Predict the 3D structure of the following.
Amino acid sequence: MPEGNPGAITSSPDGSRLYVSLTNLGELGSGVISVLDSETLQEVAKMQVPGHYPYAGKVWMNAAGTKGYLGTNSGNVQVFDAASNTMTTSIPTVDPQSIAFSPDGARVYITGYNNRMTVVDAQTDTVVDEWVFDPAYGTFGDLEIDPTGSFAYVGGRRTHSVYVVDLASGAVAGSIEVGGPPGTLSLTKDGKSLYVTDAYNEQTIIVDTATRSIRTSFFLRIGYGFLLSETEDRAFVTTSNRSRVDVIDLTTNAMICSHSLLPDYQNSPQDIALSPDGRRMYVANTSHNNNTIIALAVPEERNAAFRDIPSGTQFERDIRWTGNAGVATGYEDGTYRPLEPVRRDAMAAFLYRFHGSPDFVPPSTSPFVDLRTTDKFYKEITWLASMGISAGWPDGTYRPLQPVNRDAMAAFMFRTVNTANFSEPADSPYKDVKNTDQFYREMAFMSAAGVTTGWPDGTFRPLEPVSRDAMAALLYRLNPLAPTNLTR
């Protein structure tokens, strides 16, 4: 891609083009919009942004895909013609932050840094109104328009609130306190749910727009970008400080760890866009070595239902999450078999999928004397060994069909996350575990990390096999975005 740091990426409505705003390091004091072919990711055009300082803002496309709008930090919104890839009109505003279109496409709404909104005629790109609000409302940020076109939801960063603006009168009709400075706002198509990111408190808040109140469910997150899938059952979150794009299952409000992307720590994903069919994800990525646009296949959305897990089953939520995340596939007859013990081959499969089913070529010669290359889960078991999560037994066996005891389960899970800095306590958190026991550090970690508190009687029962339902619950809690609910 051309020289510069990609800050934001937008797909054209028909999916044929991608618009990437760049800080062009080769031309000091300028900004560039690079136009890419979405199939080849090759640049087909480049537009210099007039008077644009080094700042990579977001491009917003109108519904027809004929025009694009870019808020610049030189005090205007720049409009370009998508057919000719040429800049056309400059709309005067004050420090534009976000842009949204009315449902009928007749109006463009622009939020300004200093508590204001500019209303633009979308046909002529001329300002028809400007609303300046009480300074007490503070900085206006991201913007979403209700599907009826009656209201706008505006992030008030300084006041930690989302304001509801009546678009007929330009008056604030209400506010929703969200606990931290609202970042990205994402409104569902039916307008009933508003997702508000709060990077300061590392959470995403779900607002019920009918009552204008926060729902009780929310999930932790780290990052800034937030994008709903086409079905709105998932969200894609850029975690630039953790070098990945996370996929969130919105039916359980938990991260699908099995689809963490961009594992290289040198990568810093800034923004994401989806193709119109929802099958491809495009990531604007900055790196120490190479700035790139990365195309990724969107993981298939699942709505797993196991026929032996009726409503009210213990750990129902956790088991449902493993199915939706692709961590567990169940048996061919559609069952999950929650009370069966987890075998060592299945444990390898759980953890391999938990890590995103990474690209891995299994060795042509088995590293274990009791494991053939044709055995079920051979790839997953050898991946586990390659990662140092399991070295097998001293006699060179893996013992794939042997049930996993709870102490060994703790060791598997301890090694599957970054625990290098964990120091075990001198006093055991469990009545039946001594600090000299094998896997003591690993079992103590399970308690310290809140993955499990053990049984109500204070025991861990290290030599008891772990059941498949408990395994689902433990993986769910090991998930860094899962709400904590400590039982067993």
User: Anything to note?
Assistant: The CA atoms of residues 368 and 396 lie 5 Å apart. The two ends are 51 Å apart (CA to CA). Helices lie at 316-325, 344-354, 378-386, 406-415, 440-448, 468-478.
